[in-house]
Amino acid sequence: MTTAKPNNTAKRRNSGRSYNRGAITTKKVNNSIKREIKPAIAASERKIVLFNKPFDVLCQFTDEANRQTLADFITIKDVYAAGRLDRDSEGLLLLTNCGKLQNTLTAPNKKTSKTYWAQVEGEPTDAAIKQLCQGVELKDGLTLPAVVKRIDEPTLWPRNPPVRERKNIPTSWLSITLTEGRNRQVRRMTAHIGHPTLRLIRYRIGDYTLKGIDNGHFKIIADEL
């Protein structure tokens, strides 16, 4: 395994990157979207990159508004994100050139679990946590059962800008493990029980974690498939 520091010249080098080797693509067939998985690539060519995404960084390599993107940090060519992480969320993002792995981690039927650490406003009761565990009714339907528990505040890098906390209102931390990936799901779930999420870090995707990866840095994993 190798660790590497961010390189702000990567945007220029990656502007012409290709995503068609082992990637998942979609095409419209009879007005519906069909998911296609490209043939698996040779094991010797597989790449897995684990990136600790900072706050306010987009999960893409280019941006017309000149906001920070993956190209400001990732120097590895021909990899693409397996799933997404919101601009205002932090933590683990996996990039790969392997369509099979990308499909395993993102296809809804695979139900790959992901663990998030959420700093929430207030202190959820046992009843509120039980609601999250059993599933809550959001606008797009009932969430699947989750594993939710209180945790001590983790040792983390400082966020820039810092989280805005309200005076006289305590905050607490939850570990939330999901097997689905709806848009802004963790934030919507905690808001549903009356405890808005102030800071959100993804710690784990399947068997991969943030362990040993500083914020804004990445780790290359080779020959693990």
Write the layout of secondary structure elements.
Blueprint: E1 2-4, H1 10-14, E2 24-29, E3 32-37, E4 48-53, E5 80-81, E6 90-96, H2 99-106, E7 114-121, H3 126-134, E8 137-138, E9 141-142, E10 147-151, E11 171-178, H4 185-192, E12 197-205, E13 208-209, E14 218-221
Structure, described:
The chain is an alpha+beta fold. It is 13% helix and 31% strand. It has four helices and 14 strands. Strands 1, 4, 5, 6, 7, 10, 11, 12, 13 and 14 form a ten-stranded mixed sheet that branches. It has a two-stranded antiparallel ribbon with strand order 2-3. A hairpin with a 2-residue loop joins strand 8 (137-138) and strand 9 (141-142). InterPro entries: PsdUridine_s_RsuA/RluB/E/F_cat, PsdUridine_synth_cat_dom_sf, PsdUridine_synth_RsuA/RluA, PsdUridine_synth_RsuA/RluB/E/F, PsdUridine_synth_RsuA/RluB_CS, RsuA_PseudoU_synthase, TruA/RsuA/RluB/E/F_N.
